[in-house]
Amino acid sequence: MKKIDSEKYSADELLEILLEGNRCFKNNTPRVKNHCFDEMKRTLVEGQKPYAMILGCSDSRTSPEIIFDTGLGELFVARTAGGTIGPNVLETLEYGVAHLKIKLLVILGHQDCGVMKYAMNAPLYNDELENLICHAQCVKMQMGTDCFNELAKHYCDFAKHRLLAKSKIIKDAYESGKLKIVKAYFTLENGEVEILD
Questions:
Q1: Do 193 and 25 touch, CB atoms closer than 8 A?
Q2: Are 197 and 183 in contact (CB under 8 A)?
Q3: How far apart are CA 52 and CA 1, in angstroms?
Q4: Dmax over Cα atoms in the chain, in whole Å?
Q5: CA-based torsion, 52, 58, 59, 61: positive or negative
Q6: Does the predicted model carry a pTM greater than 0.70?
Q7: Residue range 111-144, pLDDT digits in tens
Q8: Which residues contact 37 (CB under 8 A, 6 or more apart)?
Q9: pLDDT attached to residue 120
């Protein structure tokens, strides 16, 4: 697979490249071959130029590089349990926008998310894992959902609004058209990434 020069593509075209990679993953026809040290040494030692950012969950079943069939150096990924957004995650994504000039951010929720399950059943305002679940519990109450998979989808919308509210860098890039933010959902049962927008 050839290296993608993000400057030659629009954010919509870069999203389609990601979705085509997901189709390859889903159909068991992966194309990426550069998961080795020789490729990294040959093309990436001097620096990185990823064409998309992913904000996703730390769940071991949801590695963006695998489910989008991408190789080394293609994605700039921030992963936390539940895809929650703390100061370090926010600054990581700001770095991607301001310094790496990435023009596509995918907020990726997924089926069977443990944080969403926990938020559905945990007592409100308890101290256990408070930073992980408090926002998910707020989304649950606002949306009135009893399904943790639906909560994961709604949480992607919350995450987008939170990024825009908390980061001037991200908001300015988004409002000027330099950054496209896409909400997506990965279904473990069929391997498909669905666009929620």
A1: no
A2: yes
A3: 16
A4: 52
A5: positive
A6: yes
A7: 999 999 988 887 666 655 666 778 788 888 888 7
A8: none
A9: 85
C-alpha span between 4 and 81 (Å, rounded): 29
Distance, CA of 153 to chain centre: 12
* CA–CA distances in Å: residue 183 to residues 110, 152, 153, 172, 186: 11, 11, 8, 19, 10
Which residue matches tokens 């995650």? 89
Give me the DSSP letters along 159-170: HHHHHHHH-HHH
Q: Residue written as tokens 């994961």?
A: 152
In whole angstroms, what is the distance from residue 159 CA to residue 113 CA? 15
The 10 Å Cβ neighbour count of residue 126 is: 11
DSSP letters for 47-111: ----SEEEEEE--TT--HHHHTT--TTSEEEEEEGGG---HHHHHHHHHHHHTS---EEEEEEET
Gyration radius (Cα) of the chain, Å: 17
What's at 170, amino acid-wise? I
Contact of 139 with 155, CB cutoff 8 Å: yes
pLDDT tens-digit readout, 28-84? 999 876 666 777 676 777 778 999 999 999 999 999 999 999 988 899 999 999 999
